[in-house]
Amino acid sequence: MKTARKTTGARHEQRTPPKRADSYREDHKQGDPLACRRCRASYVRGRWSWAPAAAEAGRTLCPACQRIEDNFPAGYVTIKGAFLAGHRDEILNVVMARAERAREEHPLQRIIGMQDVHRGVLVTTTDGHLARGIGVALRDAFNGELDLTFSKDENLVRATWSR
Fold first, then answer.
1. Are both 57 and 116 inside the same structural domain?
2. Residue 24 buriedness (CB in 10 A; 0-12 / 13-18 / 19+)
3. Same-domain check for residues 95 and 154
């Protein structure tokens, strides 16, 4: 014989956290096929890739090219410390190699720019994953300290590597 379980009627709903606003990413999939008029990346079935675009593809700017044009980074990598002075070329080679590997697989992950700042180098990226990846690559290659900061309100990652 089954016994009925008494319920209180209270209901617990799980709420999904709201998505972070990123004006460079669409909430819905765009119509495809599309091709970026600057970098020639193609958009098919909801993904950007380096595959050749179809002849009938519409022309647009991909989110990475738009960020580059607006100079609006999603990632910052600050490289600093005494080690940088003696190993600058090696460090920047690791940065560029990591960025190139990411760009080959993910067209939206690119370096916007590199500039000298007070006692260091600042690298800006179009994607937070790339900024994090560069920081981790530097730590793995040269040890040192890596500090990662993820913004809760916007799509932004700050990586600071020092040695």
1. no
2. middle
3. yes
Q: Residue 95 sits in which domain range?
A: 69-162
Whether 13 is covered by a domain: the verdict is no
Which of 122, 109, 93, 133 is CA-nearest to residue 39?
109
The angle, 0 to 180 degrees and rounded to 10, between the axes of the packed helices 82-105 and 128-142 is 130
- Tens digit of pLDDT per residue, the chain (163 long)? 444 444 455 555 555 555 555 667 665 566 779 999 999 999 998 899 999 998 999 999 999 999 999 999 999 999 999 999 999 999 999 999 999 999 999 999 999 999 999 889 999 999 999 999 999 999 999 999 999 999 877 889 999 999 9
The pTM for the full model equals 0.82
H, E, C per residue of 51-86 = CCCCCCCEEECCHHHHHHHHCCCCEEEEEECHHHHH
- How far is residue 3's CA from residue 81's CA, in Å, rounded to a whole number? 69
Residues 109 and 50 grouped into a single domain: no
DSSP state of 88: H
